[in-house]
Amino acid sequence: MKKNVLVAQSGGPTSTINATLSGVIKAVMDSNELDTIYGARYGVQGVIADDLINISNCICDDCELEQLTCTPSSALGTCRMKLRSIDEDDHNYKKIYETFKKHDIQYFFYIGGNDSMDTVAKLSSYFKSINYPVTIIGIPKTIDNDLVETDHTPGFGSAAKYVATITQEILRDCAVYSQKAVTIVEIMGRDAGWLTAASMVGRLSDRPVPELIYLPEQSFDNERFIESIKEELAIKPNVVVAISEGIRYPDGSYVGARSDEVDQFGHTHLAGASNILRQLVRNEIGCKARSVELNILQRSAAHLTSRVDITESYHIGFDAVQMALKGQSACMAVFRRKDVDWYQVETDSVPVERVANQIKQVPQKFLTPNGVNDDLLRYIKPLTLGEVKTPYEGGFPKHFIFK
Amino acid sequence: MKKNVLVAQSGGPTSTINATLSGVIKAVMDSNELDTIYGARYGVQGVIADDLINISNCICDDCELEQLTCTPSSALGTCRMKLRSIDEDDHNYKKIYETFKKHDIQYFFYIGGNDSMDTVAKLSSYFKSINYPVTIIGIPKTIDNDLVETDHTPGFGSAAKYVATITQEILRDCAVYSQKAVTIVEIMGRDAGWLTAASMVGRLSDRPVPELIYLPEQSFDNERFIESIKEELAIKPNVVVAISEGIRYPDGSYVGARSDEVDQFGHTHLAGASNILRQLVRNEIGCKARSVELNILQRSAAHLTSRVDITESYHIGFDAVQMALKGQSACMAVFRRKDVDWYQVETDSVPVERVANQIKQVPQKFLTPNGVNDDLLRYIKPLTLGEVKTPYEGGFPKHFIFK
Q: How many beta-carbon contacts under 8 Å exist across A and B?
């Protein structure tokens, strides 16, 4: 029987999720034990629908692989689909079984976040229950850095570098006027403030940083917010505030909630916290106020990735294949930081059910009453280091697109 | 009498306005005829208030000059102040005269847009009327590319490169889902669509580009917009739309106008056209819709400048000083494109009153019923070419800040 491989991408895009895909592809191509590698279109949806690409036919050399590595956002497409439990509905499980059987899939790699790890866990126990010999491994990715069991997630370092860089540029932009103004920068990370914290990394090297920062881990209060801004405006004309899209009031409601927009997982679609606070500042203080949503740019800015992150993202994909070849399954690949002072990581694995559906928030030890401490910034900074020489063509970065 | 120089920056920031400042500084430092160079804080406001920095003391070597070149957003600060005519109020003119006299200013360079050229024109005729021997030269800058008499403006090429690159990344991000979705990207340029047009440059090299584009030069119609989106959605699930912040309805009102926000020049503060259209799409079509405002990032993204633009921005500053030394005054430095097929420019000058308060829109010859033609893209593309090796330190770009 041929040993074919299937890989798919799931959840929100990142700027390095294709580096992980490249790592998987490279490891398969280098292996003597493995045959064809297929990619499922639009995550597990493509597995259910038997919508596969023969990647072995699409990627012909290291040059194309390198181009894929530097292309942002799930090149195979993605989905936000949660499998229902098998007791509720086994329809999709049977479809997946048929796809696996039809294409001799013996290894399935699923690159995604905590919802995707739920899929890995459910499929692993399903195939075990029917005694079908398939190895299933989850590979983490998310700019939110909110997966448990891993030191950090692939994709976070580049988003953090983007946020830290853009924050520096926004600070320059805001410093140009002498009139009083408040700029509110809204950063992704629904329930975890890791990425918002990255806006403060410049503090470690005495660079200007936002005057105020608000994470989802600490409850938000309109009055205290306005008081803090007034205090800052008394000292200097330009105040920059970094907020997470997911900041909440003490009753648990999101500052930026739009109640009419809920996704398939029941997550409220968040947008507009910065807009709401901009209006608040204008009403309560009366000065110029503007909001900047970093929006999808922070997860797709492949022109500004961290070399550490893109290298690690590639390696965790490569290493996940090695784990599979060594007989591991139903697990997720993770990073272990070996040393706190001198950054070094190694890959390892953990049982996937430990990760599925869990959220890792910024722990209290990293928080202060007014934001984040330097220990958190020292944790983040090494992940943002190094630049990548993005391949340009005709003035802008060259991207790889599966035909 | 010492021949001192004063330079100031005005209007909205760009990512290369400091390259022009560097060019001016370098030319002064290289000259045997000129002594100290001062910088006014916050544009002409700093000249009025005698709030000057001695730049000769702040910039000590080419290394610092290089760092300034790669720093975004008016390092000296800026303003949006229009001088009243001297017949109305000569108070500020006298203040400026005093500052010039106090510091032996014989040359004044004002880097800015069309409103700033009004200042150059007014001050030139004032000093001529009182027979005070000062040379005043305007140097253009604006990401909007809306100044007349010059082939293009310094700062536009980098903003265009940013818009073209980010559009490619947004297109990647939008292509990942199989569900129907409309993404509306809002780009700066109040009354001129040059920068919005840059989102289409990829078309010249058969790259994916937004399906629809709307410029301020063509009146906007909600019904036609919704019809066009429906037509695109019938062909593919993901539709990306590029709009200028300044698109207007046939009656002249802005789609994104917020009537309560008007700046000192009486310009309505524009924001939110994409948000308004996002709601429209959701109400009329019912599919997923999101808006992405490129916001101030497009004018401060020094990490992603065009080498052509940053080089030209530097040279036009340098050349403006040479023009002054050759006896020109009351003029603005401009670019002339020498050849259409093989991009080459040279600097020249025009009387500043020809430029002041004028707006150069995208001419009809570049427009089609559904957007822009390839001639326009061929005009824009050379301005976006080449990358700059931004100096990084500790993971993000190093900026120069005047103490």
A: 167
Residue B216 tokens read as: 């301020």
CB burial string B22-37: b at 16+ within 10 A, e below? bbbbbbbbebeebebb
User: Is B283 within 8 Å of chain A by CB?
Assistant: no
pLDDT of residue B2: 79
Count how many Cα atoms sit within 13 Å of the Cα of residue B296 in the half-sphere of its side chain: 23
Return the amino acid letter for B3: K
Q: Which tokens hold the place of A36?
A: 């064809």
At position B54, the amino acid (one-letter code) is N
Our CA-based measurement puts residue A271 at a distance from the nearest CA of chain B, in whole angstroms, of 10
3-state secondary structure B277-318: HHHHHHHHCCCEEEEEECCCHHHHCHHHCEHHHHHHHHHHHH
Residue B44: is its pLDDT beyond 70? yes
Tens of pLDDT, residue by residue over A68-124, are 999 999 999 999 899 999 999 999 999 999 999 999 999 999 999 999 999 999 999
Q: ipTM of the predicted structure?
A: 0.94
Q: What gap in Å lies between CA B272 and CA B252, rounded to an integer?
A: 17
**What pLDDT does residue A258 have?**
57
Q: Which helix (H) or strand (E) holds A359?
A: none
Other beta carbons less than 10 A from residue A304's beta carbon: 26
Long-range contacts of residues A256-262, Cβ cutoff 8 Å, at least 24 apart: A256/A186
B298 touches chain A (CB under 8 A): no
Each residue of B331-381: pLDDT tens digit? 999 999 998 788 999 999 999 999 998 999 999 999 999 999 999 999 999
HSE-up (13 A, CA, CB side) for residue B294: 30
Residues 6+ apart with CB under 8 A from A369: none
- Residue pair B59/B45 in contact by the 8 Å Cβ criterion: no
Rounded to whole angstroms, how far apart are CA atoms B163 and B198? Answer: 6
User: What is the C-alpha to C-alpha distance for residues B169 and B234, in angstroms, rounded to an integer?
Assistant: 23
Question: How far apart are alpha carbons A127 and A134 in whole angstroms?
Answer: 7
Q: Residue A269: what pLDDT?
A: 53
H-helix or E-strand spanning residue B25: helix B17-30
Which residues on A lie below 8 Å from B205 (Cβ)?
A: 393-394
**Given pLDDT bands bounded at 50, 70 and 90, which one contains residue A2?**
confident
Residues of A marked active site are found at: 144
pLDDT at A272: 83
Number of Cβ within a 10 Å radius of residue B182? 26
Closest-CA residue to A237 (of B42, B10, B270, B111):
B42
Per-residue burial over A365-401, b = 16 or more CB atoms within 10 Å of its CB, e = otherwise: ebbeeebbeeebbebbbbbbbbbbebebeebbbbbbe
**3-class DSSP assignment, residue A102:** helix
Question: Which helix or strand (DSSP H or E) is residue B252 part of?
Answer: none
Count of CB atoms situated within 10 Å of the CB of A73? 26
Which among A151, A157, A67 is positioned nearest to A339, based on CA atoms? A151
Q: Cβ of B177 and A204 within 8 Å?
A: no
Q: Does B391 touch chain A (CB under 8 A)?
A: no
